[in-house]
Amino acid sequence: MGRLVMKFGGTSVANVDRIRNVARHVKREVDAGHDVAVVVSAMSGKTNELVEWSRDASPMHDAREYDAVVASGEQVTSGLLAIALQAIGIQARSWQGWQIPIRTSDAHASARILEIDGSEIVKRFKDRKEVAVIAGFQGINPQTNRITTLGRGGSDTSAVAIAAAIHADRCDIYTDVDGVYTTDPRVVPKARRLDKIAFEDMLELASQGAKVLQVRSVELGMVHNMPVFVRSSFDKPEDIDPHGTPPGTLICSEEEIMESHVVTGIAFSKDEAQISVRQIEDKPGVAASIFGPLAEANINVDMIVQNVSEDGKTTDLTFTVPASDYNRARDTITASKSRIGYARLDSATDVAKVSVIGSGMRSHAGVAAQAFKALAARNINIRAITTSEIKFSVLIDAAYTELAVRTLHTLYGLDQV
Ligand code: ADP
Ligand code: ASP
Ligand code: MG
Questions:
Q1: N or C: which end of the chain has fewer CB within 10 A?
Q2: How far is CA 369 from CA 56, 142, 262, 356, in A?
Q3: Closest Cα to atom 11, ligand 1: which residue?
Q4: Ligand 2 atom closest to 150 (CA)
Q5: Which pLDDT tens digit goes with each residue over 270-287?
Q6: CATH second-level architecture of 3-254?
Q7: Cβ atoms 176, 232 nearer than 8 A
Q8: Pocket lining for ligand 2, CB < 6 angstroms
Q9: For ligand 2, what atom is nearest to the CA of residue 44?
């Protein structure tokens, strides 16, 4: 007998029929003797609709009220799943974030989990064999008593945090794909499912745009050494042996992975914007005068390239920011124009970042050089490059994203044969 967290994403709870299907997955594990806490997302599309409604009500809406609105999707699915479980004879109770409580910071819309009191849930496992059905994505700030949300995709983080709090043996993430692939299988049909992937590699894949897991859920899994298993909710619940190994991907520590490839996977993100500050006087302190105000405005700068301007005397600084911060970033730079001293600001939003990830890169030279050559052969222009120990990224025109991902996927031998 063990203890499990089972998390179901939006498409897995898209309607009442799908929620009944989830209930049968949960029943299978309960019948096998496990203690089960379930974490659910809102029905697919619901959170987007709630976000839209908040924007429609006012583009400058209060962040606390935004969270009050967008957290509601998970309230519905947690209640519905508890009803569906009871209907098939499984003891179940729903829990909102504040009822547990899941205490978070007060950074509304991107709150961090500080602490979870899992004692009542564990007590009910023992006393009543009761399944806890927990609304993902939400928590409460203890100072203000207001509902908070954890950022888009945050139910993954709720699940891993709860798994750590109740000392679960494993956290199963049920989604609409049967595991983590070498790249998004919807874009590259030749992508291969990975049996195992190290936390470090998964962290990079998620950070660089593979939305199969929220970045913070992977961080938490790594910190608590919690095995996270990504699997499909679309397999027939009764066909699965609860003691067998179903198709899926285990995210675990690097030591548990026997065979390692130089490149593990490829991620991409179209949520980027490029800003070039042209013809800046090349003197000490210039970078600080640009990036200081951006940091103060809480804007994350990612890739940075500095090169000589057309006139051969001054310098150009090019960098990327998340597309959602693009307007603010432009305004911030423009407001500091006299302090920075530049001639022109150019920008582009139709850009994409393609990242190649693999902890094997630590011990292999020339991995990135191969990519530059392969992209050049396809006439794909590289606007900026960044590298770190286990990944490198290139910024390209968004129109070439799929071509670039497929080219690199083949180049590094990741295609399914
Ligand atoms: P959920 O609603 O269950 O949380 P998400 O839509 O957030 O599901 O995440 C699952 C999706 O992530 C898949 O449908 C897939 O298109 C996408 N995805 C992106 N990169 C990968 C990858 N490397 N492996 C698997 N899925 C990926
Ligand atoms: N419903 C939330 C979202 O769509 C959280 C989640 O699904 O993980 O972002
Ligand atoms: Mg998700």
A1: C
A2: 47, 50, 14, 12
A3: 212
A4: 5
A5: 999 999 999 998 888 889
A6: 3-Layer(aba) Sandwich (3.40)
A7: yes
A8: 9-10, 41-42, 47, 73, 136-137, 152-156
A9: 4
Q: Where is 237: in which H helix or E strand?
A: none
Give the nearest ligand 1 atom to 181 CA: 24
How far is CA 157 from each of CA 84, 111, 163, rounded to the nearest angstrom? 24, 11, 10
Alpha helices, H only, 144-237: 155-165, 199-207, 215-224
Domain extent listing, the chain: 3-254, 266-411
Q: Which ligand number lies closest to the CA of residue 204?
A: 1
CA–centroid distance, 73 to ligand 2, in Å, is 9
* Ligand that comes closest to the CA of residue 175: 1
Q: Do 3-254 and 266-411 show the same overall fold?
A: no
- 103 forms beta bridges with 115, 140
Give the tens place of pLDDT for each residue, 365-396. 899 999 999 999 999 999 999 999 999 999 99
Structure tokens belonging to residue 363: 């011990």
Q: What gap in Å lies between CA 322 and CA 110, rounded to an integer?
A: 15
Q: Residue 286's pLDDT is what?
A: 87
302, two tokens: 């990612």
Distance of CA 325 to the CA centre of its chain: 18
Whether pTM exceeds 0.85: yes
Which ligand number lies closest to the CA of residue 45?
Answer: 2
Of the pLDDT bands very low, low, confident and very high (cuts 50, 70, 90), residue 398 is very high
Cα 66 versus chain centre, distance? 20
Pick the CATH number of 266-411 from 3.20.20.140, 3.10.150.10, 3.30.2130.10, 1.20.140.10: 3.30.2130.10
Query: Which carries the bigger pLDDT value, residue 379 or residue 359?
Result: 379
Q: Please, which residues have CB less than 5 A from ligand 3, an ion?
A: 9, 153
